[in-house]
Amino acid sequence: MGNLQDIINQNRAWYCLECGKCSAVCPITYWETRAYCSPRLLIEKALNSHSADVYEDPLFWSCLTCKRCSELCPSDVLFSEFIRDTRALARNDGLSGDCTHGEVIQAWGQMMTDPDLDQNRLEWLDRDLRVSQDSEVLYFVGCLPYYQVQFKNLGIEGLEIARAAVRILNHLGIEPQVLSDERCCGHDQIWQGDIVTFDALARLNLERIKATKAKQIITTCPECARTLGLDYPNRVGEHGMEVLHLTQLISRQPNASMLDWDSEKRKCKATYQDACRLSRHLGVYEEPRALLHASGLELVEMERTHRSSLCCGTSCWTACGKVSKNIQVERLKEAKATGAELLITTCIKCQIHFKCAQQDPTLEDDIAIPIRDLTTVLADRL
User: Fold this and answer.
1) Of 23, 26, 32, 93, which is the most exposed, with the fewest CB atoms less than 10 Å away?
2) What number of other Cβ atoms are within 10 A of residue 130's Cβ?
3) What is the DSSP string of 166-222?
C-alpha cells in the first residue's frame, strides 16, 4: 500500500494539469452543495501532502470511482485508483466512510471471511436448471442471494438473475459449476479501503475456484467480473481462468445473434444503462446492445451513453444521501425522456439504487419506468 507519496506516484497524480475537465463531468461535483469539491482539487490537496485535508474532502468517501473523469483526463491520471488506494491508507488511520443500510452489507462480507462458515447458497437452483460438478465453466453468483433478502421490499430481480443465467447457459449447451461455499468477491471492500477483509475473501474464493479446475468464470455482476478478472490476479493471486461477463460469453457463441429467440415476444422500446464496472472499467459496451437488438428489442439511447454514461449514484454502500438521490433521479429522468418502456441494466446495484429512488412518491410520474436486468430479459425472450 505504501504512503501517500507512493500512491501519488503509482496513479500518475503528479501529471494533473489542473485543466478542470474532471470537474466538469464529475456527478458529485455537480450536486455537492456543502463545499465545492472536484477530482482536480483533491489531487491538489494530495500533492501538497496534506493527507488530513484529503480525508476530510467531501469527495473522498463519496467518489463513485465511476471513471468518468478518466475518460477526459489529458494526463491519464488514475483518479479512481488513487481514491481506492488512499482510502486504504485512511482505513489504516482508523477512518472510514458513512456506511448505509446499518452496515449489514459490510457485516456479511466480514462474516464470510470465516473459513468455517456454513452457508446454504444453492436452494435457489430450480429442478429444471442443469449444473455440473466438472464443467469447464464456473458461474460465480456473487451476493445475489443476500441482496434478494436485503432488498426484497424494492421488488428487485435478485435470484431471478441467477436462475436466468443458468437457463441461458443451459440453452447454450453449458451446464456450469456453481460453488456451494462461494464468498462475496470483495469488490466493495477493496473500494472502501478495507484491504484486510478483501484479502481474506479473495483467498477463500481463490482456493475454491482453483479446486473446480474450470477454465472460465462467468458472472452476471460487472463488479464480480472486474474483481475476479483484474483485482484477484493483481493483488492476491492468479487463478489462471478467463473471466467473462455473461453478455461476453453469449456474444462469442457461433451465430450468437441468431439464437433461438421467441418471435412471438412483443417488440418494445428499451433503453440501456451502462454499468460503470462493465463499461468504463472493463470496456464492454457493444455486446449488451447487440444482444438487445438480436432479441427483438428496439434500443433507444439516453442523452449520455457509452463512455459518457451517468453512474447510478452510489458506490460500495457508503455516502448514500441527497447527492446520490439527485444523481439517480437525474438519470431516471433521462431514461424516461427516451420514451422507452423499459430501462435495462447489467448490474444488480444499478437496479437497487434506481428502484430505491423510485420510492419517492413526489417524483413518481417523473421517474416511473420499469427496470430489469439484461439477463432476465434475454432469458424471457429465448
Assistant:
1) 93
2) 14
3) HHHHHHTT---B--TT-----HHHHHHT-HHHHHHHHHHHHHHHHHHT-SEEEES-H
Q: Domains plus CATH for the chain?
A: 4-92 (1.10.1060.10), 101-252 (no CATH), 256-380 (3.40.50)
- Consecutive 10-residue runs of the chain (382 residues): their mean pLDDT? 87 92 94 92 89 90 95 94 96 89 91 93 94 97 95 95 97 95 96 96 97 97 98 94 96 71 79 97 96 93 96 90 94 97 97 95 92 96 88
DSSP of 23-61? HHH-HHHHH--SS---HHHHHHHHHTT-HHHHHHSHHHH
**Residue 382 DSSP label:** -
Per this entry, what is the length of the chain?
Answer: 382
| Reported pTM | 0.94
Pairing between β-strand 269-273 and β-strand 216-219 as defined by DSSP bridges: unpaired
* Alpha-carbon distance values, 361 to 272, 275, 334 (Å): 24, 26, 18
